[in-house]
Design brief:
homodimer, mainly alpha, Farnesyl Diphosphate Synthase, two-stranded antiparallel ribbon, 14 helices, 2 strands, globular
Amino acid sequence: MTANDAASYVAERRRLIDQALEGAVTVDGSRLRDAMRYSLLGGGKRIRPIMLLASGEAVGADCAPLLPFACGIEMIHTYSLLHDDLPAMDDDELRRGRPTSHVRYGEALAILAGDALLTDAFTLMTAAAQTYPDPVAAIRAVHEIALAAGAAGMVAGQAEDIAAEGGDADLATVERIHRRKTGALLCAAVRGGAILGGAEEDALTRLTLYGERLGLAFQVVDDVLDATADSGVTGKVGGRDRALGKRTYVELLGVAGARARAVALRDEAVAALDVLGTAAAPLRSLADLVVGRAAAP
Amino acid sequence: MTANDAASYVAERRRLIDQALEGAVTVDGSRLRDAMRYSLLGGGKRIRPIMLLASGEAVGADCAPLLPFACGIEMIHTYSLLHDDLPAMDDDELRRGRPTSHVRYGEALAILAGDALLTDAFTLMTAAAQTYPDPVAAIRAVHEIALAAGAAGMVAGQAEDIAAEGGDADLATVERIHRRKTGALLCAAVRGGAILGGAEEDALTRLTLYGERLGLAFQVVDDVLDATADSGVTGKVGGRDRALGKRTYVELLGVAGARARAVALRDEAVAALDVLGTAAAPLRSLADLVVGRAAAP
């Protein structure tokens, strides 16, 4: 697979995911569904669901049966952004270049839309698991995703992130926070795809390493973008981390140091894919995509 | 099974559930887990999880393998109370006789504790589904619970309830709101247990009818208690519905009319159990328990 092929793989998978997400939350005339769709369908790079597909396909799964699980992980990611933006949390007013949910729909509906996206991610995945070729593998994948999203993963990371605001967290603390806040779900996307694809133990171990390293790289890149890019590029209000008194990789390593760290993590992630050969080309391409966002000085 | 036996069945199952819930969210020194445990282990009648057990056992399931699913439904119920109490929602300060989560832990952690309880309910249930005697039945049960909790059920009911505040909703509207807000999850507890127990189609239909009727009765009783009991009995601030401008059964039917409606719904629920014979005695006892809360004038 050439670099060109990999790029078109990513674009095509993104299109399939956008199409599936459109059908995952149907319109029923209620403001609740409107609010869910507003956040879910308002752009987004779809990195996590593409990762799930690419990981599953790398070990031989068909794409179509993986799609509901890919949508589920994007719904969980979207709910987490929606709740993180709330006034009681990061109090953000701009996301993906548009007003955040609570600005547009009010705080009550923003909380409920997040709750519903999270719950219905499981509605969707458990519906698909019942008819998946290997139902027990499908439950195992859903379990990994839930585990990564809850009090052992993403929610714990967010709670710790808020608690650390204004403090003087060191690099190890910042890394632990981000391993849970961002890394866990990204890694679960990769592992979930691999489990759905029936990966052997060795392939699963390699893909887990890839997911862990890339999950960390993702957050380093986010910190670089928050510090350096304007909101026209990120679709968010820039400099929020500093305004909230959050310790970031940029603060700890400098912009150049953070960029170098992201590149090193990407290289470790890609090296872990060696044994998988050309089937893993899309995963390599995704690694470049994640880190490339901040690679240009 | 005598009335006495049924009462001790309920007490014994409540004890098993409390014990299982204690292990479902372990302590790790974090405030997040503390907040989760504060809401989850702070009393509660455990009606939904006992319903799930009683329904599964009525069609022949063993109790022990049902427990993680019973805990899951109680965790989902608890998260919904926690989020409903938030300042942006019902803004309640008292629940089960104690300060609500956001009063005790702050708004950010209350939101996150709710998110984590909801997510980890699925972590727990999908872990148990993998080793359940019939894994596909287990996924189906988890699916029913998720469906009832999300944008087709409980969350939609809560959104509609908030939207209807201060309006002049009629009985049909109030009933539609409560069918989703309270009824759906209660009915899913009954159906989930039945599916886990491998119920035949006819038994499932009967148990569904029981769950629907009792789910409605439950909310009628709640309205009666909100209007008539003091906070020493309910553990909540009384008269909140009226203060929030919510239309209730009591307002629409009067206290005596609402009580009569609850009793009629209970009778319909219990009648649906006829074909199940003595195995359904605990479910009959639960119906009395639900309605008995408000039956005495």
